[in-house]
Design a protein that fits this description.
By secondary structure, the chain is mainly alpha-helical. The chain has helices at about 10-30, 35-45, 50-70, 85-105, 110-115, 120-145, 155-160, 165-190, 200-220, 225-235, 235-240, 250-255, 270-275, 295-300, 315-325, 335-345, 360-385, and strands spanning about 85, 150-155, 245, 265, 285, 305-310, 330-335. The protein is elongated. The mean pLDDT is about 85.
């Protein structure tokens, strides 16, 4: 992944960056006229839709940036925190906020912006908001049940609608263009002498609307970075041109019982298969999860050999090639996948019996390895294997 990752800065520096961004955000709000209560409530009276246009512009800009950077592999979209949804508390809260918006002329953010430039009504609005926060805190024991009801988790709109991310992006862009046109028409009829849209140059706005629709079309067919990369490493031609070292079951068993420190066993099977039976010291990371930054401490050390174990050798090869595409080095895959190791070492089958001059020695080694690996597995099960610490997502929102 590229440079747009949150763990480049510490939690303390993150607060400083947030403060600077907040100041910049407030400056932009003030310059856009959002410190004017008349302009803010104009959206409810049909006289000024600047607020709606700014919010649509911000939404389309942010969405386009996230999708384009994510498609280019420069942004880990899985690291973006999505605020969880509590449906009915959100509906009631939205109604309360809307009523306060109409009466006071501000929303919480714009009231702070207006108070910062000395507007007295905004100062009273901020004070009222703080009293509301205090009142909610005091009343919380009585409303806790409702406050925690109808939890939907971090849902995304396109998932709820059952459409693709690209289709939702196109619909949002189309809705923005339609809203711009509709609000311009309404403004000119409700406030024919003072509508902000009177200053719009019709020709340029038509061109801008067409460009936005074209952008929506690009977002509609924009390939997902992860899917594109997985498709590439799954191809037979690509695998033929990029050989990955293979390790036999006997060699892996030897390295396990020898407690070799410079190996990491990466099990890409499903969590259910991993829970049913796994190698001692293995870490379960399904193939698509290999994109996550939380695995960097496990996979990044160059001197450590990453041994990929899959249900099949093909699955392990695909995961190994993906690791190499993501920039990890020293990758090896287990020959024949986990079933081959199981039939060779853990529960030897007749078909896996060694042949040749050293067959007796190999058979004796496998019996010793099976006993030692069983002991290591039981010890890990009873001690409780530590799970890698999940990467903390940066929380935020308006």
């Amino acid at each position: 992944m590229g440079p747009f990752v949150p763990n480049l800065i510490s939690d303390q520096l993150n607060l400083v960056v947030a403060l600077l961004l907040g100041l910049a955000f407030g400056f932009v709000l003030e310059q856009a006229g959002f410190s004017s209560s008349r302009r803010l409530v104009g959206v409810f009276y049909g006289t000024d839709f600047t607020v709606l246009r700014v919010f649509f512009t911000a939404a389309v800009t942010a969405m386009s940036g996230v999708l384009l950077l994510g498609s280019a592999g420069l942004l880990d979209t899985e690291a973006i925190f999505v605020n969880p949804t509590w449906l009915w508390p959100a509906v009631v809260g939205g109604i309360v906020m809307g009523i306060g918006f109409v009466i006071g002329g501000y929303c919480p953010g714009t009231s702070v912006c207006a108070a910062a430039i000395g507007k007295v009504d905004a100062m009273f609005f901020v004070a009222g908001g703080l009293l509301g926060v205090l009142g909610f805190a005091e009343a919380y024991p009585f409303v806790k049940h409702f406050n925690d009801s109808s939890a939907l988790g971090p849902v995304k709109v396109f998932d709820s609608l059952g459409i693709s991310q690209g289709a939702f992006a196109f619909l949002l862009v189309a809705a923005a263009v339609a809203a711009f046109a509709a609000t311009t028409w309404i403004e000119k009829r409700v406030a024919p002498a003072s509508a902000p849209s009177l200053r719009f140059a019709r020709g340029r706005h038509v061109v801008a609307g067409a460009a936005l629709i074209a952008l929506g079309g690009v977002l509609l067919v924009l390939p997902d970075y992860k899917s594109r990369l997985l498709a590439r490493v799954s191809g037979g031609a690509y695998a033929g041109a990029h050989p990955v070292p293979v390790m036999t079951a006997d060699e892996l068993a030897f390295r396990i019982v020898d407690h070799e420190p410079n190996i990491r066993i990466v099990d890409v099977r499903s969590p259910a298969a991993f829970a049913a039976r796994a190698l001692p010291g293995a870490t379960n990371v399904p193939t698509r999860s290999l994109f996550g930054k939380e695995w960097s401490p496990l996979l990044a050390p160059r001197h450590v050999r990453k041994i990929v174990v899959g249900d099949t050798e093909a699955e392990a090869r695909k995961a190994g090639l993906l690791l190499e595409e993501l920039g990890y080095e020293n990758v090896t895959i287990l020959e024949g996948g986990f079933p081959n190791f199981e039939s060779t070492i853990l529960t030897p089958a007749a078909s896996a019996a060694p042949v040749g001059r050293w067959a007796a020695d190999v058979l004796r080694f496998r019996e010793d390895a099976r006993a030692e690996i069983g002991r290591l597995t039981d010890a890990a099960r009873h001690s409780g294997a530590k799970k890698p610490k999940a990467e903390k997502k940066i929380q935020g929102g308006c």
